[in-house]
């Protein structure tokens, strides 16, 4: 069973929302756009690998993208699979062209044929994550559960090269489609040694109760303040901000398209970027409308809940902490 499905990361949602509400001359805009593009590619890569791994969810317990607090620090895991024999961590890496694992110098590089760039060694990173998870399990009285990790390269066209111990690297690193076979082989070896009897669903519930959303203030990294964010409703057709409220609908001043529910995206941006609640006056300013009644009606019909004691509206289905 998949206890937590992969969803678009909140950090990416925030970036996307902010990019759509910043003036085109905002200094960090192009850096934000390139970070969003990289994160988006990573997210797509993770989904590709999910496709190959989901077969295990029929029998075992799985998480797609979780965070745990270990020693006061947030540790992120791409995929966690819990079987009767062990826990498997599958770290997903999205690199194009050619990557090189150097086990002698402990270097990891990516080359596009012209330029070589160094990155944190995924093997060291995965070993680290394994230790952190072990620490977390111990702290929760879940002991003696072996943890193994694999590194899944999401793009099947990426060339994987090794300098040094090829066997050691090939034991844990593979393109996403080959990871299931590696897990099955490992399971067989473990089962032959001693058939395991871990209650994977119970371990999964313990993890589920503790996991947090991977969220941080990405906007402050780029110097984005709330006052920089533009108000208004986006046109779903041409993307321009500033639709006009006209006869119960929204009309774009640029392309004249009409859209009845265009305010939903604006509210979603508001809750992501500005505040978890909104009041009537703020709603009028933010949607650029003049009528209190229209503001109330829009909030009432946009899946929001009124908090009478504070005279403000919040999202009715507050996103779970996952
Ligand atoms: Zn338009």
Task: Describe this protein's structure.
Pfam families: NERD (PF08378). This is NERD domain-containing protein. It comes from Virgibacillus alimentarius. The chain has 322 residues and is α/β, with parallel strands linked by helices. It has two domains: 209 residues, no CATH class; 85 residues, no CATH class. Helices cover 37% and strands 24% of the residues. The chain has ten helices and 16 strands. The strands form four sheets. A six-stranded mixed β-sheet has the order 1-2-3-4-8-10, with helices on both faces. The longest helix is centred in the N-terminal third of the chain and has 25 residues. It starts with a strand and ends in a 7-residue tail after the last strand. The model has no long low-confidence stretch (mean pLDDT 95). The structure holds zinc ion.
Which ions and ligands are bound to the chains? zinc ion
Strand order, main sheet: write it out.
1-2-3-4-8-10
In angstroms, what separates the terminal alpha carbons?
A: 16 Å
- The helix-and-strand class reads alpha/beta
Uncertain residue ranges: none
Task: Give the rounded overall mean pLDDT.
Answer: 95
Kindly give the count of domains: 2
Number of helices: 10
Q: Beta fraction of the residues?
A: 15-25%
Described by strand count, sense and barrel closure, the largest sheet is:
6 strands, mixed
* Strand/helix succession: EHHEEEEEEHEEHEHHHEEEHEHHEE
* Helix proportion: 25-40%
């Amino acid at each position: 069973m998949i206890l937590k499905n992969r969803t678009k990361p909140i950090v990416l949602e925030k970036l996307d929302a902010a990019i759509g509400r910043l003036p085109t001359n905002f200094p960090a805009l192009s850096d934000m756009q390139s970070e969003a593009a990289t994160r988006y590619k990573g997210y797509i890569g993770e989904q590709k690998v999910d496709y190959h791994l989901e077969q295990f969810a029929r029998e075992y317990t799985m998480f797609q993208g979780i965070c745990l607090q270990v020693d006061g620090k947030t540790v992120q895991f791409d995929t966690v699979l819990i079987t009767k024999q062990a826990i498997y961590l599958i770290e997903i890496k999205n690199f194009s062209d050619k990557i090189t694992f150097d086990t002698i110098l402990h270097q990891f590089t990516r080359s596009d044929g012209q330029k070589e760039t160094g990155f944190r060694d995924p093997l060291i990173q995965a070993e680290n994550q394994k230790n952190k998870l072990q620490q977390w399990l111990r702290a929760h009285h879940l002991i003696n559960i072996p943890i193994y990790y694999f590194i899944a390269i999401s793009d099947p066209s990426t060339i994987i090269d090794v300098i040094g111990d090829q066997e050691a690297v090939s034991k844990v690193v593979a393109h996403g489609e080959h990871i299931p076979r590696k897990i099955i082989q490992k399971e067989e070896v473990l089962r032959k040694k001693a058939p395991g009897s871990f209650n994977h669903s119970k371990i999964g519930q313990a993890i589920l109760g503790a996991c947090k959303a991977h969220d941080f203030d990405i906007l402050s990294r780029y110097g984005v303040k709330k006052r920089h964010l533009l108000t208004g409703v986006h046109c779903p057709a041409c993307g321009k901000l500033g639709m006009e409220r006209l006869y119960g609908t929204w009309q774009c001043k640029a392309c004249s398209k009409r859209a009845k529910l265009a305010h939903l995206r604006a509210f979603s941006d508001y809750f992501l970027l500005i505040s978890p609640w909104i009041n009537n006056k703020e709603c009028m300013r933010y949607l650029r409308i003049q009528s209190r009644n229209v503001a109330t009606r829009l909030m009432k019909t946009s899946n929001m809940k009124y908090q009478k004691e504070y005279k403000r509206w919040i999202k009715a289905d507050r996103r779970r902490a996952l």
